[in-house]
Target: Beta-glucosidase
Amino acid sequence: MTKNLPLEEESGGAEEEEKEESGNSEEEEESSDEEDPPNSTCMQTSGVHVATKDVKNKTVSESKGESDSDHTQNIASLKRHEADSEDNSDSEPAKKKKKNDDNKSSDVAPPATTEKKTRFQRVFTKEDELALVKGMHEFFSDGGNMDGFPGYIERKKGPSIWDKFTHLQGKILDGSNGDVAVDHYQKYKSRIFPDGLGTEVNEEGIAFYNNIINTLLERGIQPFVTLYHWDLPSHLQEAYGGWTNRKIVDYFGLYADACFANFGDRVKHWITLNVPLQTSVNGHCIGIFAPGRNEKPLIEPYLVSHHQVLAHATAVSVYRSKYKEIQGGQIGLSVDCEWAEANSEKTEDKAAAARRIDFQLGWFLDPLFYGDYPASMRQKLGDNLPRFTPAEKEFMLQNSWDFLGLNHYTSRFISHVSNTEAESDFYQAQEMERIVEWENGEPIGERAASDWLYVVPWGIRKTLNYISKKYNNPPIFITENGIYLSV
Model:
């Protein structure tokens, strides 16, 4: 069973947070081979990702490809996250304070024990990172990306960057690809703009999504639709450089417009981008996700994120100016965050933890809410971080979000590490190390079947409180959360 580690006032991370209970589940989920619960349906499609909401029971169910197999979903609906619900230290878990002369951080200690734990010393190493990647590759090679990329040779669906990526030698552990996967394409034909340009509209793709949406509604299930879940049309990548080219912002706006026009009379919740950080870092820095680029790790991740932020604002602008008043829906984006808890009370560790969160959440949310990237990113990245024009800043502020989605799986303790390199990649620039054990060797939380995933319930609570406080208490949906347990 999961340990509910106690928690005190938030001393780590970027800011002290309000005290409140969050809805993070601490139960072990059922194995992925069991049937989904009634009225909880998820399907990702090439081009549009359809998540669903049980209208009767008011629960949200959303899944990206790897979640369907590797992570059993634990989805909760948060209509409004109230960050300042209570100020009762007895009701909130409290971390034990270390009383060492070196003023180290307060500790988290499990209930029903008097043993004092000290912050662990083991660092989240490059080997851990490779183990994480290996697990993901094993998942994808097992066909876990649901419908992934099947059948792109047939009908009118254009290939995506993942279609091409899975055919590159060495990218998938066992050499398999996503041409068939669970054969979703044969059951539901997909892709609205085969070339990504909007010059050709695939009517079969439109009919495909109409069929899914109508079927869901007939069964009392409200769809949440994600416009982009990493599957960029391959033509946009090959002809224009994909997300590295400013033109993609306009193409994304055309694509979003087509979706709103064709499905918005029934779809009332739109998610523009799913965890854009993964596209930027794993797709254009490390190169383990499509399109597999790592040639310019100091430049491309930040350029890609820059264009993703502007693409989101463009889609929001299109929806609000043309459809929102008539269709009455809402639009937002989903971001991911591994909570960063300072490893000690030292100022440098606190700053490192705050910086770690800036490089995750602030990278995408600060421009839309404050008009620019976090100051810590500007300081560490310098001219490698693109700049918004005054007009772009105003445009983003006017087109931020109606709600936010949060994908959260685990947490880490963070210590400061000085970096003297003249040029630093995404992780080096953060000047931090991620730690996964206490000093006595016990992990930060129960370890799941995935090597990188530790169950840390207080981490999601702190993340929610942080978002609520920093971004004016937006409505939040937990769009991904959960673990896969070996049987």
In short: The longest strand covers residues 221-228. The radius of gyration is 22 Å.
